Amino acid sequence: MAATTHQAGSSGLSRGRWSARARHDFLWGLIFTSPAILGLLLFRVYPVIASLYYSFTSYSIFGSPRWIGLENYRNLISDQNFWKSLFNTVYFLSFSIPLGIIVGLGLALLLNMKVRGMSFYRTIFFLPSIVPAVASAVIFNYVFDPQYGILNNMLRVFGINGPGWLSHPSWAMPALIVISIWGVGNLMLILLAGLQDVPQDLYDAAFVDGAAWVQRFRHVTLPFLSPHLFFALITGLIAGFQYFAQPYVISNGTGGPARSTLVYGLFLWQNAFKFFKMGYASAMAWVLLVIIVITTLVTFRALSRRVYYGGA
Amino acid sequence: MANVTLAHTSGRAGSPLLGRIISRGMAHGALLILSVLFFVPFFWMITSSFKINSQLSAFPIVWVPNPVTFEHYTVGLQQVPFTRWILNTLIVCAFSVLGTVISCSMVAYGLSRIDWAWRNALFAILLATTMIPDQVTFIPLFIIFRNLGWVNTYLPLTVPSFFANAFFVFLLRQFFMTIPKELSEAAKVDGASELTIFTRVILPLARPALATVGLFQFLASWGDFFGPLIYLSRTEQYTVSLGLTFFQGEYTSQFGSLMAASTVMLLPVVVLFFFTQRTFIQGITLTGIKG
């Protein structure tokens, strides 16, 4: 037995010794996970470090990066478009996430009443969520068209002259939020599965005790759904900060009208590929990374204690 | 604990049966209205793609095209290399699905069926990196791919999928862990290597999970916009997402053709959904369950 003295982490080996079996397992473990290990190094670790480096440089992709210290970050602070894009993103998030959760939950609750035709309704509500982002932006661009769109056409029936929606600075973002709510079907399915895990006898007990619908919802349903809602919130935040395709499509990459759809991801892309300010864009990227990590951790801290895992 | 402490009885409707009928009725009503709202954009898209131009802009709305025209498909879409875009996208999808299924199933195997020292740490790191936004990694990656001469090829869109995706690894790992350990042990006693167990025992059993992953990756590649946007610049190379955007920019108010293009883009997605509904729903609920 050529047992070398390595420190073997877990896996219940005799201390400090690697048996032939353990070495065999370690080797195969490495082989099988090698795509992930290489992927982490090539597509995660290296780019994250490199972009930190680029964020301290002036780099137009055509030349080579030139070290300028903190200048990019200083410029960001005084860049109005940066603040505007951050504001737009937060605006989008603070409506699309709560509304998405409310609508998704509402639909799931309705479907969970086990009415006839449930699978039909479920399909209808779910389908929009698999429509590619670009396609839904193109479809809604027509739905919201001031002249030919279906929305203003319907409003005109009631004598209301609807605004230009996507071409109006104060309506463009609400319209984008509506598009995002249309795609809530994914979350609805997750919540529906969660609802079906709630033990029926708890409901029955609550019912016998005379609990009203609201009380049953608050004290039975919500605790069981809390892991799913928490998951939806976290993934919604991470995805929302990277929101890009739909504002790009409806504004043709400009973030218009009047910067109203200039979300963070869009302004970052503009810096990198329209103005070729790779260093500046990298600084924005790092600010975004820090924002996402902090937001996620704060959300975890604030809420994870209130999540009830007994059901899952 | 879900506490069910209740202070007072509330004024519930007299007969439970009547109450039930009323609430059922209201649920049906709400579902009907909501499903109309959710479905209208689809209906509008499909019908508009068959309307003649005067009916596209008519007020009040023409709901059913009369006459039905195929012009937007036969003429409108031909203003751009639309068929080519579809083929391009299918190529990207095929390789991405292949890469994802191979790499993610390998990694998931290594993280669930082999007991080795780095297993849990690697899995935790892998999950934590899902927090890193693409915006942070795309600039250095773009520079690498550019130096490799990969810009304007499909390599940047397909090669990374051979390096495992944390989300799909998670999904497959969940599934692999439900397969009894005894199966592997028995195979080992018979002298099977890890590779044999992986390909002959685990993969055949995991077919539904592999299908889910392949399906999700297909949809992701089919709808991907950001990758094609930064890596592809020649019109005839576009994928369908990028092409649709280009089309929208060039032919802003040709709504008939734009809706025809959207319909074509949605067709594979919807068809796929109807054929694989169960796989779909299971896959989504499986990933949503653990927070």
Structure explained in plain terms:
The complex is a heterodimer of chains A (312) and B (291). Chain A has one domain (73-306): MetI-like fold (Orthogonal Bundle). The two termini of chain A are 45 Å apart. With 312 residues, chain A is mainly α. Chain A has 13 helices and two strands; from the N terminus they run αββαααααααααααα. Chain A has helices spanning 20-54, 71-77, 80-111, 118-126, 133-143, 150-157, 172-182, 185-196, 200-208, 213-241, 245-251, 264-273, 278-303; strands at residues 57-58, 66-67. Chain A is globular and about 70 Å long. Helix content of chain A is 66%, strand content 1%. With 291 residues, chain B is mainly α. Helix content of chain B is 70%, strand content 0%. Chain B has helices at residues 16-48, 53-56, 71-76, 82-112, 119-128, 134-147, 155-158, 166-177, 181-189, 194-205, 207-223, 226-231, 240-250, 255-275, 277-289. The longest helix of chain B has 33 residues, at 16-48. Classes of the chains: A mainly alpha (312), B mainly alpha (291). At the A-B interface, helix 1, helix 3, helix 4, helix 5 and helix 6 of A face helix 1, helix 4, helix 5, helix 6 and helix 11 of B.
Q: What's the CATH architecture name of the largest domain in chain B?
A: Orthogonal Bundle
CATH second-level architecture of chain A? Orthogonal Bundle
The number of distinct helices of chain B, counting runs of at least 4 residues, comes to: 15
Strand order of the largest sheet of chain A: 1-2
Count of all domains of chain A: 1
Provide the CATH superfamily of chain A.
MetI-like
Give the class-level CATH name of chain A.
Answer: Mainly Alpha
What is the molecular shape of chain A?
globular
Strand content of chain A: under 5%
Query: How far do the termini of chain A sit from each other?
Result: 45 Å
Uncertain spans of chain B, ≥5 residues at pLDDT below 50? 1-13
Question: Would you count the extended β strands of chain A for me?
Answer: 2
Most extensive chain-chain interface: A-B, 119 and 104 residues
CATH superfamily of the largest domain in chain B: MetI-like
- Beta fraction of chain B: under 5%
Instruction: Describe the largest sheet of chain A.
Output: 2 strands, antiparallel
Proportion in helices of chain B: 55-70%
CA radius of gyration of chain B: 25 Å
> What is CATH's topology name of the largest domain in chain B?
MetI-like fold
